[in-house]
Amino acid sequence: MTTGCRDSHWRVLIDMEKTAHISKTAARVSLDDFLAELDSYTERVPLDRLTALLRRLDISLDDVIDCARFNDERYQRNLLRSGSAYHALILCWRNGQRSPIHDHRGSSCGVRVLKGVMTETLFDVSANGLIFATSSSELKEDGVCGSQDSDIHQVSNLQSDERDLITLHIYSPPLHVMGTYSLISGNVGEFADPVFEFCHGDGI
Asked: Is 65 left (phi over 0), alpha (psi -120 to 50) or beta?
């Protein structure tokens, strides 16, 4: 059986409000320097390194506003930067939009919330092959989380007052195909994730 999210040694969830001491002691990294370091990798960036960089990243919404494009039908993936070992995407979520329930086969995925509050739901696989939710948590602005490989999760914008959500996602290596899951079937589907400027997602 594959290792579930609850047992993954690489599962990372950090709320900047709860770890303010990290920001005070670690040197901040500009967006240009952040991307330059990612450019220096020719192979997969370890998840712990990726999330550490995201926590130190000095970024505002103004830095990426040109890539913040929304779609009223589904969440939208917008390419910020493409390197040999990673893709940096700005994901824009209208209120109520969700990703599919998915894994990150072969990739490390780090996320930083730029605007709004993100809801992340984690899943595990039961003895009969069906998935079930194990937990849900909210990640506020500047919060960082990470997952990789067989970790299964869903990202949603469930805020009140029709508020939008904008998140920065780093996939290393670039995530071209993800496994997708259903609550009512044990079959694992595939979503081929084409990445280009202002690419649509596959969620609700």
From this structure: alpha
Instruction: Report which of 128, 87, 84, 126 is spatially closest to residue 104, judged by C-alpha positions.
Output: 87
The total number of structural domains in the chain stands at 1
Residues 174 and 87: beta-carbon distance below 8 Å = yes
Task: Compute φ and ψ for 35, nearest 5 degrees.
Answer: -70, -35
Which CATH number does the domain housing residue 144 bear?
Answer: 2.60.120.10
Tokens of 88: 């940096």
What is the residue range of 145's domain?
5-193
pTM of the model: 0.86
Local structure of residue 28 (DSSP, 8 states): P
Interatomic CA distance for residues 123 and 112, integer angstroms = 20
For 170, list phi and psi in degrees, rounded to 5: -115, 120
Task: Give the model confidence (pLDDT) of 27-65 as tens digits.
Answer: 999 999 999 999 999 999 999 999 999 999 999 999 999
Q: What are phi and psi of 25, to 5 degrees?
A: -100, -25
